[in-house]
Specification:
The complex is a heterodimer. In chain A, helix 3 crosses helix 4. The two termini of chain A are 23 Å apart. By secondary structure, chain A is of the alpha/beta class. Chain A contains seven helices and ten strands. Chain A has a six-stranded mixed β-sheet. A four-stranded antiparallel β-sheet of chain A has the order 2-1-4-5. Chain B is of the alpha+beta class. Chain B has two domains: 202 residues, no CATH class; 137 residues, no CATH class. The chains are: A alpha/beta, B alpha+beta. At the A-B interface, helix 2 and helix 3 of A face helix 1, helix 9, helix 10 and helix 12 of B.
Chain lengths: 229, 436
């Protein structure tokens, strides 16, 4: 039996705010298999962003383990963590594009970080932007794009290095509802047609119902897992 | 990430903040320009002064002056001495002392020199010049390349009442008006201060030859600003058997000979004379200039260090502004050392641009300053006649200075960027992404 794509074991994270310890995660156990589309649902402060940061190797747990393809993230050094992040696609609520780079430049940046050559990354960036429906806007800078378009660029960027899975932090949280519907359509399409594993956090009940599985969080623990298939 | 991509990304970041990057670079430009300009000028000045000293200053000669501490330069002291005949002792060097010197081994010959300041009058024209009494035969043997007639002839056994004049005595103003030519008579007017009351004594002489132009200061050798008369004539003019100095021609110019003969001469006169070699003078000049250059480079380096602090300041501000960007880069999988490399690359680009423009600007400044120096003021720049006596400086930009300025400019930029770059590389992605 192969290890799950992502597995957390008794994951705990405690922040010190001022002098007061805040338990953001209080023993989270989660398994994500290849091809999953999981929506982590919960109110602000439920620990879903903290969980996402742990899974994305952006932050280290206070206790417990994050295993990605069976490898304990805590055991990795700085360089290995960087390599791991190259195999994870991030999509942020506020897009987090580099403002001075064009849509293509942003996608190419991810590829160049992974050491992909110039011609290959250009070809791939154009292909990905076409996939997300931005073929005509590849030379536009983020400031010249709408919120929905920016998030499409962010999704194209996240897909650039053929990641093992996509981590999405409120991907529709900062765009209008019509565009949000389009974006969620795109996400579902990626999961269904290309088999991309997706872990998405949201506080939007409606959006969560689009996922194959809903994980409900409250006060740093998983309170319910709903399989929707 | 490939090296080219790192530089490309760094360059893009610089281009985004053109004004800020431009001002940061300007600091480096000014620092480098100051170093290049000051060193190019001082090295040019050194070359000029060395040339001037060497012209009319044969390297196989020694100058013997009376007084233990008072050579033309005091050789041992490493600095300028008390000037001609500057000691307080009663010792005098006599014209006939050449006989003692000539008997020392490795001495080919020697010439006593009597020198006084006189007015040279011809008709309505007057110039001030040195009247120098020398044995023409010996003197022209010692200075065979500079004590040479342009017009007329230097007689080896001249009659009394003849003189050889320097080019600037014959043609002092260089404007077509000539004071005297060959066969002209001029009056040498000497103020005799050894009698009371001091009296002006006038000696008419006939110009037998005009020397070809020598250039240089004529510190010890032939000068463009001198009138040469036979030594016996000078003795009778000035009523003295004492000479100001004796020029000694050596059989060869290696250091051992110079030292040995210098020692022998000093011993022969009981340590009452100082002996200066032209090589000693040149090495003193060289060491003075080394000190000056070090000093100037030090001052200029301070301005470059200020520029370095500017770079550091700007990069720390930039680091704060770009914290989120760094977070994004790290989330995308960029390694810490690549983040470090990007920030260092930005500093390298600033340093490199600063060095290129700095060297250019420094060179322009050095040439401008050289023109101002050469003309004795801004007159030269506006095309007016250069004042005579101003001397030409050609700025010198040696490969050492060029590479040094480049290296130092880039090194300062990089050194001051290390801390901000290191801080950037150490940012935790989750904190950096959260940064507002």
């Amino acid at each position: 039996m192969t290890a799950p794509l992502v597995e957390t074991a008794d994951l705990k994270k405690t922040y010190i705010l001022g002098k007061v310890p805040v338990n953001a995660l209080c023993g989270v156990n989660l398994k994500v298999e290849k091809g999953d589309f999981i929506a982590i649902l919960g109110p602000s402060g439920s620990g879903k962003s903290t969980l996402l940061n742990m899974i994305g190797a952006l932050d280290k747990p206070t206790q417990g383990k994050v295993l990605i393809n069976g490898v304990d993230v805590s055991s990795l050094n700085d360089n290995q963590l960087a390599n791991l992040r190259q195999s994870i696609g991030f999509v942020f609520q506020f897009f987090n594009l580099i403002p001075r780079l064009s849509a293509r430049g942003n996608v190419e940046l991810t590829l160049s970080i992974a050491g992909v050559g110039k011609n290959e990354r250009r070809r791939r960036a154009e292909e990905l932007l076409e996939t997300v429906g931005l073929k005509e806007r590849i030379n536009h800078k983020p400031s010249e794009l709408s919120g929905g378009e920016r998030q499409r660029v962010a999704i194209a960027r996240a897909l650039a290095n053929n990641p093992g899975f996509l981590l999405m932090d409120e991907p529709t949280g900062n765009i209008d509802s019509k565009t949000a519907t389009e974006i969620i359509g795109l996400i579902k399409q990626l999961n269904k047609e290309k088999g991309v594993t997706i872990i998405m956090i949201t506080h939007d009940q409606q959006l969560a119902t689009q996922a194959k599985k809903i994980v409900k969080m409250f006060d740093g623990t998983i309170i319910k897992e709903i399989d929707q298939q | 990430m490939k090296v080219g991509d790192v530089f490309g990304y760094a360059f893009g970041a610089i281009r985004l903040r053109k004004l800020r990057a431009g001002l940061t670079t300007l600091g480096v430009v000014i620092g480098i320009a100051a170093i290049v300009a000051l060193l190019a000028i001082s090295q040019g000045l050194q070359v000029t002064i060395t040339d001037q000293l060497q012209s009319g200053f044969a390297t196989d000669t020694l100058v013997v002056s009376p007084g233990s501490g008072g050579g033309i330069f005091s050789g041992a002291g490493g600095g300028f001495g008390g000037g001609v005949g500057g000691s307080g002792s009663d010792f005098s060097l006599l014209v006939t002392d050449t006989q003692i010197i000539n008997e020392i081994g490795d001495v080919v010959t020697s010439a006593a020199v009597i020198q006084e300041v006189c007015s040279v009058q011809s008709g309505d024209h007057v110039v001030t010049a040195y009247v120098v009494g020398v044995d023409f035969a010996v003197y022209s043997e010692i200075y065979s390349s500079t004590f040479v007639a342009e017009t007329g002839e230097i007689l080896l056994n001249p009659d009394n009442g003849t003189a050889v004049v320097g080019k600037r005595v014959s043609d002092p103003w260089e404007n077509g008006t000539v004071l005297c030519n060959v066969n002209d008579s001029v009056d040498l007017v000497w103020t005799n201060t050894t009698v009371r009351p001091a009296t002006n004594e006038t000696y008419p002489v006939t110009v037998a030859a005009v020397l070809k132009e020598i250039g240089g200061f004529g510190l010890t050798g032939p000068s463009d600003y001198a009138v040469y008369v036979p030594i016996g004539q000078a003795q009778s003019f000035f009523g003295t058997d004492e000479c100001d100095r004796i020029i000694v021609k050596l059989a060869n110019e290696d250091d051992a000979t110079i030292k040995a003969v210098s020692k022998s001469i000093e011993d022969a006169f009981g340590g009452q004379v100082s002996v200066t070699s032209s090589t000693a003078v040149l090495s003193i000049v060289s060491s003075i200039f080394s000190t000056i250059e070090l000093f100037l480079a030090g001052i200029a380096a301070i301005s470059l260090l200020v520029a370095g602090v500017g770079i550091m300041n700007i990069m720390i501000v930039s680091l704060m502004e770009r914290t989120r960007e760094i977070g994004i880069l790290k989330a995308l999988g960029m390694k810490s050392r690549t983040v470090l490399a990007i920030f260092i690359s930005e500093a390298v680009i600033v340093g490199l641009l600063g060095a290129v423009f700095g060297v250019g600007l420094g060179w322009v400044l050095a040439n401008f300053a050289a023109r101002v120096f050469t003309g004795g003021g801004f007159a030269a720049a506006t095309g007016q006649a250069a004042a005579s006596g101003g001397f030409a400086i050609t700025p010198v930009l040696t490969p050492t200075v060029l590479l040094g300025a480049f290296g130092f400019g880039i090194a300062v930029s990089v050194v001051f960027a290390i801390y901000p770059a290191w801080r950037a590389s150490k940012l935790k992605p989750v904190d950096a992404l959260r940064y507002e």
